[in-house]
Amino acid sequence: MFQIRGVTRTFPSRPEPVQALRGIDLDVVDGGLTAILGASGCGKTTLLRILAGFDRPDAGEVRLGERVVASPGVFVKPEKRSVGIVAQEGALFPHLSVAANIAYGLPGNAWSAAERRSRTERVEAMLRLVGLPGYGDRRPAQLSGGQQQRVALARALAPAPSVVLLDEPFSALDAALRVELREEVRDLLRSIETTAVLVTHDQNEALSLADHVALMRDGLVVQSGTPQQVYDHPADPEAAAFLGDSVQVPCSVLLDDDAGHDGMLVVDSPLGSLRVPAASVHDGTLVLRPEQLEIAETGVPATVFATRFFGHDGLVQLRLDDGTPLRLRVAGTDLPALDASVLVRTVTGR
């Protein structure tokens, strides 16, 4: 749907200009949800504003379908792009009713009775779609935070846009409501097969909602792929740490077993001699996930120095005899005692 090539954006600042985007290349999957994930200041909001038409790139090209909407000498205004926007906190008009807020996004003026009837029917359909039938006469102040975001989504979807852009739409909600609403939004967008772009700094949100994840850092897309691809095969140790809990230990390669063809490496590490995917080794660092380690009857000696209980599972922090720190996950009922001596090993196939 969106094709982004070589997009740059620099903002004047003191003591020197800030390069927000430094040559972005990205494809947004048609009919799917693409998450643009990154820490604050990585450039993801600037990229979203360029996609929406709120800002112009300094260089590069943005295509929406077959049409160029931004490039040197070409700039299509936001209202001409067929793009819906859901802002961080809904951004509803407080003086308008829910129905009027949703109708505001519809094109044209309701001068004729037929046009007014059509707009009313569309608004009612949108309210049903987001689970708020009968709420049309209420004002935003009479709604909960989750209901306000549902209205904001209805307003964005009302004109049947080609793409919906979601700018951290769940960040202002409490944790339980955030999880509930984002799952509802995911299911709704999939049911109507709408292309969506979600900007977020929340790794769990991106991995659980998106069909495609683009990880940004310092104004660049450093990795993109399915959630499982970017989690299982991070581009570098920094990406691994940002995408979830990671265990990083030094290693040296003993045997290159056809690594150039998605092969394996045999490495020497504090965990012993291991045969691991080549993609998990980065410049002398072996990157694992906590679920790839387990406490067992055989393995490398370690000492438990901290545990964290999460109910369904727990995180165990260990230290090998040489001082190498490790983390692994166990069932919440299986947390070992502090200072316990255990044996730890890697788990193949995870």
From TrEMBL:
GO terms of molecular function: ATP binding
Protein name: ABC transporter ATP-binding protein
Keywords: ATP-binding, Cell inner membrane, Cell membrane, Ion transport, Iron, Iron transport, Membrane, Nucleotide-binding, Translocase, Transport
Domain ABC transporter: 2-243
Endpoints of the signal sequence: none
Taxonomic superkingdom: Bacteria
Organism: Gordonia hydrophobica
Residue ranges the record marks as coiled coil: none
InterPro entries for the chain: AAA+_ATPase, ABC_SmlMolc_Importer, ABC_transporter-like_ATP-bd, ABC_transporter-like_CS, ABC_transpr_FbpC, Mo/tungstate-bd_C_term_dom, P-loop_NTPase, Transp-assoc_OB_typ2
Name of a matching Pfam family: TOBE_2
UniProt keyword Nucleotide-binding, yes or no: yes
